[in-house]
Amino acid sequence: MTLKLTTMIATAAVALAVTAPVNAETTAGTPITAETLVDHAEMIRIADAIDAAVDAKDWPLARSLFTDEIRVDFTSLTGGEPATIPADGLISGWSSNLTAEKTSFHLRGNHRITFEGDDEAMMVSHGYAWNRLDRGALPENGGEALWEVWGTYEHSFVRTEEGWRVDGMSFFATAERGNTFVRNTPGS
Q1: For every residue of 103-122, which 3-state class applies, written as one string?
Q2: Fewer beta carbons within 10 Å, N or C terminal of the chain?
């Protein structure tokens, strides 16, 4: 194993250890019962559907999975402060960055759901995202067409008249690699 790869693996392991949840309920989630099985399945479907909609650039579908206002925290990637914003603003930001020129692939797993009452829940899951922008491979743009990131997602859910919707979304990056030009540059 090369020194660079060994260092990257060690850095990712330390980041995971430092940012991993320590609360047993958050780590394991609420036990699934006959009464909560459908709710569990629906929340996992929604979180996965957000990823699929983003990758397909199906912005109306992505928007339909959120409440009108949402709490967001992507500060581990972008800096700034957590905020409450209109869901339309989040979708607008995603759609302006992930245009036809930029390809993305999101994958999530290890979903753990903790119910915070009959109509509220928190899902913690591991996530991976891959972005490709061919012009990132140009020497003046960094020489690499790819950027990828690993981390932990938190989705807060609320039951609405239309069913479960996401009213908060956070991503806590634990490792990333590749060309930040690809991450930061909107496709054309």
Answers
A1: EEEEEEEEEEEEECCCCEEE
A2: N
